[in-house]
Structures are given as C-alpha cells and as structure tokens.
TrEMBL record:
The lineage of its organism: Bacteria, Pseudomonadati, Campylobacterota, Epsilonproteobacteria, Campylobacterales. Belongs to the outer membrane factor (OMF) (TC 1.B.17) family. It comes from uncultured Campylobacterales bacterium. It comes from the Bacteria. Keywords: Cell outer membrane, Membrane, Transmembrane, Transmembrane beta strand, Transport. GO terms for molecular function: efflux transmembrane transporter activity; porin activity. Coiled coil: none annotated. The keyword Transport applies. SUPFAM superfamilies: Outer membrane efflux proteins (OEP). InterPro entries: OMP_efflux (IPR003423), TolC-like (IPR051906). This is TolC family protein. It is found in: Cell outer membrane. One of its GO terms (cellular component) is efflux pump complex.
Amino acid sequence: MRNIIIFLLLLVNLKALTLDDAIKKALKNNTQIKSQGYLSQIAKENINISKSSFKPSLDVAYSKEQRKENLGFGKKESSSSASITYNVFNGFKDFYSLKSTKNLAYNEELNLKLKKLDIVYNTKVAFINYLKNKKNIATVTNAYELFEKQYQDAKNKFDEGLLAKNDLLQINVRKLEAKQNLALSKSNAKIAKYKLKNILGSSFDINEELEDVARNELLNEYNVSKLGEKLEIQVLETLKNSILNQKKSNRGDNYPTIDIGANYIKYHERTTSFSADLQDEQASLFLNIKWNLYGGNKQSYQDVKLSKQILQINEDLTQLKLDTDMMYQEAVDRLRVAELNYQTALISLDQAEENYSLVNSRLKEGLLRQSDQIDANYLLSEAKQNVDNAYYDIFLADALLQRLFERSY
C-alpha cells in the first residue's frame, strides 16, 4: 500500500505543469498572439497591394449596340477592345507609399514580439501568484487547525471552570479570522488559476497541478544600456518613419502624373450607312500628362496633420524613455526589497517557531495565559506567510525585470 501511494505521488509530480511548459503553451495557444499574428500578415499583404501600383493596368471589353435612328439609317455594331496603361511618373507617391507600408509591416512584426513578451510576463505572474496563494492555503489551513485545537482545549477548560469566557471568545475570534483568511486564499488561488487558463487557452486543464519554481531559475544579470533598444521604442520609431514617408508621398501631388499606354479595337459587325468607309481594326498609342494646379489646399492640410503626428510621437518617445527608467528603478528596488524581506522573514520564522514552542511549554506549566498561546500561533502563521510571500515576490520582481529587458524566459 505504501509503495502504491508513493507511486501515485510521483505520477502526480510528473504531470505537474512547469513554468517553462506554461510559457510554451501560452506562446502556442494564446488568442491575443494569434490575433496579432494575423495583423502582421495583413500588414505584409498591404506591401503586395502597394507594389501593384508599379505594374501596368490591362483592361479588355466587349460591346454590342443596335438601334434605329430618326433619319432612317440603321445602326448595328459589336466590338472588342483592349487597353494597357502604365504610370511612368506620379511624383514618387507610389515609391514613398510603399516605403511607408513596409514601415507599418515591420511595426506589426515588432508588436507581435511585444505581445509575446507581454503574454510570457502575464503567464509568469499568474503562475507565481497561484503558487503563492497555494502556499498561503497550506499555511492558513495549518493555523486554522491549530486555532481549532486550541479552541477545543480551551472549551474543555471553560466547561470545567478553569478558563475565563473572554479567553475562550478571543480564541474563537482568531479561529474565525483564520477561517476567513483560508476562504480568501482559496478564492485568490482559484482566480489566479483561471487567469492562467485565460492566457494558456483551452489546452490547459484547470485541475492540472503546477510545479513549484526554484531559485536557480532567476536571472539577475542585466545590461542597463539595452533599455535604449527596447521594442516599444522601435515601434514608435518605425511608426514615425512611416509617417515621414507618408509626408513625402503626399507631396507627390505637387508634381504631374505621366501615363503611357496603347488601345486596340476590333469590330466584329458594323452595319451603318458609312460602314464602307470605316476600318475593322484600330490601334493607337497614347501619352497622358496631368497636373493638378489647385486642390483646395488638401495636400497642405494633410502635410500639417502628418507633421503634428510626428511631434506627438516624439513626445511619446520622450515619455516612454522616462517611464522605462522609472520602471527599471522600481523593478530593481522591488527585487532588492523582496530579497531583503525573504532573509528577514526566515529569521522571523525561526524565532516564531522557537517562541511557539516556549509558549506551549510554559502554558503547560501554568506560567502563561491562553492568550499568549493565541499570539504565538498568530505570529507563527504570519511568519510562515511572510516567508512564502517574500519568496514568490522575488520571482515576480525578477519577471518584471525580464520583461523590461525583453527576455522570453
């Protein structure tokens, strides 16, 4: 029987989902990543659409007409035609429009990378928060069971007239507080797991166990100079370049457009009074030059609008760099504080355990009151929670740093 239990425990542990596996599932199945992937593909198709303006246009047509005219002459004719047109010059509008479209396509690629980084970070946060709340459940459950035992012992003493009612009520209040904390921890763990399922998609079983994280998974080496190369900054830079190319394309309206082409017409039947004088085929070459001299200042207003958009992006870039520096300092401080809190919490836990043992011994000797045991139990429970919270806060702070430095793992 003992071997069977050990085997089942090992089996559960083998099936436990690791943080790395959760990240892989998120990158594969997350709907936001898939959606952004389609946006990236759409942007690439826009490049092909822009390239079509560099190719000639070919049209074919067929027409048939039959009618009687007032002078008695009948008219009946049908024809086929073909025409090809090629734009030779349009003020480089198509050239800069293509460059702008390429900028936007690259922008969407960067956004896809950013979305993956955000999903990785959100996965880590949901995963670690679940582990934190799961540990809290164990700690609060233990505290509740201790309070329950203390309450039963105190009730027996109260029934025997050996304990004052206020001491009994004090233990019961602490027990009920522990019960509330237990319910809250269970709720938080459940919410964290559903958040993880929301990120990982349908492939994640809500009942699947999660494997704990180890300290050797932390990455504490960061190159601050890399913050200036952040993808968020590149996204704004490529967007600005796209608008600059739009401005250049827009100024193409100041130049003439030149088209060349050829027409061919074939008459299949033609019955009119003058049909004998008309040819059955006609072919021609043409050159069209068009220059718009005034368009209601549309180009000028468009240029002003684009210039203001560039100014707005410049301000966003400045703010983004300030925010990045602030977030880095905040993340570094969070990691430093979490490390310090963890070391402090370990010392507090050792002392709380020793205090709990001493209080229980002295209580049995009749040297302390029941309220002292309540306080000792409360301090021990709080110390355990502080250790667990500080431990996982280290991982959360490290995850934020990894997101800032754009590390996928």
